[in-house]
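Quick one, tokens below:
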């Protein structure tokens, strides 16, 4: 988990070192939640990292990028421009709707996930998932204004992982993708520009990541040493 700007930090990552990208970048919609909280860099769709995502991904690996209906074209074009093969539009049905414009828009109950691959060699390991995924969005317990549900992210990680390389989330917010990876036993690289969210993410990921036997043994030795 690294705190900083992904546009800078991804340039230092080795090529073909990442096995899957699952991310939820600022959509560029100047979003505010009920409490008026905003997120950094939400002034325009954040698409200028996709060339680096393509470079760091292993050939044949996948990317899942959240977006919304009104910025979908920007993200779809940017994915193609970066070199990805666009494969599916997935609908995340939140099962309960948000507010939006109460008189002039449909009550918004879904967001989109664009699924693309680097090259043609990708294939699903365990059957073909359906293009509508139903998971309730986090409620009052959420710590980030645009937090995504861990069960949805676990499903994406399970379905789209095809290798043992780490999963990358360059806009990891409060660390939901990292928590999902911890629970799925996958290695994870997270980047977040906001110090407070990076701190929260670090804590969530540590809590979800099972300690290896070696860590446990080392912990035991340290405890015994401290007790002496
Ligand atoms: C839509 S939110 C992600 C929320 C996350 N999915 C969660 O469940 O908590 C996007 C995040 O990207 C972060 N961000 C914006 N610009 C960034 C940048 N250049 N590099 C890294 N993080 C950035 C924001 O601070 C925000 O927390």
């Amino acid at each position: 988990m690294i705190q900083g700007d992904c546009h800078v930090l991804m340039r230092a990552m080795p090529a073909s070192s990442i096995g899957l990208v699952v991310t939820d970048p600022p959509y560029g919609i100047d979003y505010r939640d009920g409490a008026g909280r905003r997120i950094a860099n939400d002034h325009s769709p954040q698409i200028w990292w996709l060339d680096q995502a393509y470079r760091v991904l292993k050939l044949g690996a996948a990317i899942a990028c959240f977006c919304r209906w009104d910025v979908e074209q920007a993200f779809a074009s940017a994915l193609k421009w970066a070199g990805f093969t666009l494969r599916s539009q997935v609908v995340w049905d939140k099962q309960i709707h948000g507010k939006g414009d109460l008189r002039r828009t449909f009550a918004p109950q879904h967001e989109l996930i664009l699924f693309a691959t680097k090259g043609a060699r990708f294939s699903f390991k365990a059957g073909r998932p359906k293009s509508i995924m139903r998971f309730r969005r986090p409620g009052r317990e959420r710590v980030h204004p645009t937090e995504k549900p861990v069960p949805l992210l676990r499903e994406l990680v399970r379905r789209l992982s095809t290798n043992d390389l780490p999963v990358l989330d360059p806009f990891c917010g409060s660390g939901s993708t990292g928590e999902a990876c911890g629970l799925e036993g996958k290695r994870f690289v997270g980047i977040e520009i906001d110090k407070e969210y990076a701190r929260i993410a670090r804590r969530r990921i540590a809590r979800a990541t099972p300690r290896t036997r070696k860590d446990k043994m080392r912990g035991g030795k340290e405890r015994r040493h401290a007790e002496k």
